[in-house]
Structure formats: structure tokens, C-alpha cells
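Module 6 notes. Inverse folding takes a fixed backbone as the condition and produces residue identities as the prediction. Think of it as a translation problem where the source language is geometry and the target language is the twenty amino acids. Below is one complete input and output pair. Work through it position by position during the lab.
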């Protein structure tokens, strides 16, 4: 029974230690570099794994790299939401400016229209339009 349990424990410790070294971010390893820890694990299976867990493994972190960035849905991405809000504000401001310009143009047309009617009636044109008289004078010439 002991002949079976000891090799299985050695194998489990070796595999777990090796996988843990491989999955750990290289910047978080302590003592020696990550490739060196892998070599130590392979050369000294049980001793390397024990040394890894005592010396090399970063404390308080999981084996998976903390900097792993997985895809984020657009409605969960704060940068996307911030850009969306900025775009919405810019569109609202552009719409407000467009309406103000239309109002200004309408007021200018109203003022120009009032002046144009005053000039049209004072020109002596019986139709009240300067264009009709101008066309008539062109034909006469």
C-alpha cells in the first residue's frame, strides 16, 4: 500500500508545483527567475516543489496572473461608458448650437424680410417685387 501512495503523492506534489510555477506571473516570483524555478522543479521534483512553495511563490495571490484581462462587455467597461457619456454631451451641445443658429437665422430673415418689403414698396414697382420689374427691364433693353 505504501509502495503506491508515496509515488502518487510525489507525482501530485511535482505536477501541482510545476503547474503553479508555470501559471504564476514572472514578475511575482521570488528568489530566482521563473525559468530557473521550472528547471529546479524538473531536476528536483519534490524538493523543488517544496522550495517553490516556501521561497518562490508569491504570498497572498492565486496562481493565475492577476493582470489577465478578459473581454469586458461594453456596458461593464468604465472607459466605454465614459466615452459614451462624452459623446452624448457633445451631440447634445451640437444640437443646442444648431437650434440656436436656426433661431438666429430665422430672426435675421425676419429682419431682412421687413427691410426688403420697405425697399420693395418704395421702389415704385406695382407688383411689390423687385425681381419682376428687373425682368421686365431686361427684356425691354
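Target side of the pair, the amino acids:
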Amino acid at each position: 500500500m505504501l509502495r503506491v501512495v508515496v509515488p502518487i503523492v510525489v507525482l501530485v506534489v511535482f505536477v501541482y508545483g510545476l503547474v503553479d510555477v508555470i501559471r504564476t506571473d514572472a514578475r511575482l516570483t521570488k528568489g530566482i527567475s521563473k525559468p530557473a524555478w521550472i528547471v529546479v522543479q524538473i531536476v528536483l521534483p519534490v524538493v523543488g516543489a517544496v522550495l517553490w512553495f516556501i521561497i518562490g511563490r508569491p504570498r497572498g495571490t492565486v496562481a493565475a496572473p492577476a493582470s489577465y484581462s478578459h473581454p469586458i462587455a461594453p456596458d461593464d467597461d468604465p472607459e466605454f461608458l465614459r466615452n459614451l457619456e462624452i459623446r452624448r454631451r457633445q451631440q447634445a451641445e451640437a444640437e443646442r448650437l444648431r437650434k440656436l443658429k436656426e433661431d438666429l437665422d430665422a430672426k435675421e430673415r425676419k429682419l431682412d424680410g421687413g427691410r426688403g418689403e420697405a425697399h420693395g414698396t418704395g421702389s415704385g414697382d406695382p407688383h411689390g417685387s423687385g425681381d419682376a420689374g428687373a425682368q421686365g427691364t431686361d427684356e425691354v433693353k
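Reference fact for the lab report: The two ends are 126 Å apart (CA to CA).
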